[in-house]
Each structure stands twice: as C-alpha cells, then as structure tokens.
Amino acid sequence: MYGEYSYATILLLGTVWAPLKEEFTFRYFLDKKKYTAVISFSLFVATVLLIITKMIFSIGTLSYLLFCIYAIIISPAVYYFVLTKRYVWNENNILYSSVLFGLVHLSNFNQDQFTLIEYYPYLIFYIISISFMGYIFAIIRIRFGMKYNLLIHSLFNLLVFI
After folding, report:
1. Which three-class secondary structure string do you get for the chain?
2. Residue pLDDT, tens place only, 39-93
3. How many whole angstroms separate alpha carbon 79 and alpha carbon 144?
4. Is 138 exposed, middle or buried (0-12, 13-18, 19+ CB in 10 A)?
5. CA-based nearest residue to 104, from 134, 137, 77, 81
6. Contact 29, 41 (CB under 8 A)
7. Using one digit for the tens of pLDDT, what is the confidence trace for 98-132?
8. In sequence order, what are the residues at sequence separation of 6 or more whose Cβ sits closer than 8 angstroms to the Cβ of residue 48?
9. Is residue 70 a contact partner of residue 51, using CB atoms and an 8 Å limit?
10. Is-contact 133 156, C-beta < 8 A?
11. Using CB atoms within 10 A of its CB, is residue 66 exposed (0-12), middle (13-18) or buried (19+)?
C-alpha cells in the first residue's frame, strides 16, 4: 500500500516533513516580511519543479534531496525578484496560497486517475476541500503564529494517517 516506504516512514513524513515543507512554502510569507517571501517563493518554485521532475522521471527517495537542491538554486533569483520590489503583499495572497495548496496536493494521486473522466468530480471536490484546509491554516498562521500552525497541521495529518 505504501510502496517503497514503511508505515512508520510514511507517518513520519506525513506528520513532520510534509507540514514543515508545506507551511514554509504556502504560509510562511503571510507575516508580510520580505525575507519570508523569499523563502516561501523559493520553496514553492522548488515544489513545482519537483512535481514536474517526478512526472518525467522515477526518482523515488531522491526527491527530498532534489527538493533541497532546487530550493537552493532558485533562491538567488527569487531574492532578486523580491528585493527589486516587484513583490507586493495583499490580502488576496491568502486565497492564492490556499488554492495553490489544494492544487499541489493533486500530486498525491496516480497519473492514471487523471485520465478517467469519472474521477474529475472527486478531484474537483478534493482540490476545494484541501484549499479550504489551506485557508484555515492561513488564518491560524496569521492569528496565532507559525508554531501553532505547524502543530495543527501535524495533528491534522496524524488524524488522516491513523
């Protein structure tokens, strides 16, 4: 069921690695500071590149290393983008981050499921529900801070895995 990973490994990845990666990617910048925007945007671009790479190549456990390499390589370009004041924070960023959070979670599915039309209503509902969770996580991030957001996200994922 879990492919090349044991249940314990999946549990650890889902309750520690995924919340850390996702919260720093999709909600770290919500405090309106430029350095957090650099980190979040770099991680987002690295996530997208990793998803594209996984669609083309079978990389298995190398994906975690590749994600870090992508983020390091991309950071200078994102740093330049943010420093040249092309980045302007606005209230819509909460909505954008929530929808992107939902869309990125489509990578949890097998590509064969995208070719079957009967899965489309399920996928749309999935995107909407995960985006809604992303919105809730964004509100928690803004009101209570990053550590509480990480804790809630980890506990939510733990409930999913149990």
Report:
1. CCCCCCHHHHHHHHHHHHHHHHHHHHCHHHHCCHHHHHHHHHHHHHHHHHHHHHHHCCCCCHHHHHHHHHHHHHHHHHHHHHHCCCCCCCCHHHHHHHHHHHHHHHHHCCCHHHHCHHHHHHHHHHHHHHHHHHHHHHHHHHHHCHHHHHHHHHHHHHHHHC
2. 888 888 888 888 888 777 777 767 777 888 888 888 888 877 776 766 666 788 8
3. 27
4. buried
5. 134
6. yes
7. 999 998 888 777 666 666 667 778 888 989 999 99
8. 104
9. no
10. yes
11. middle
For 5, the token pair is 């990973």
Which amino acid makes up residue 100? Answer: L
Give the position of tokens 């690695």. 17
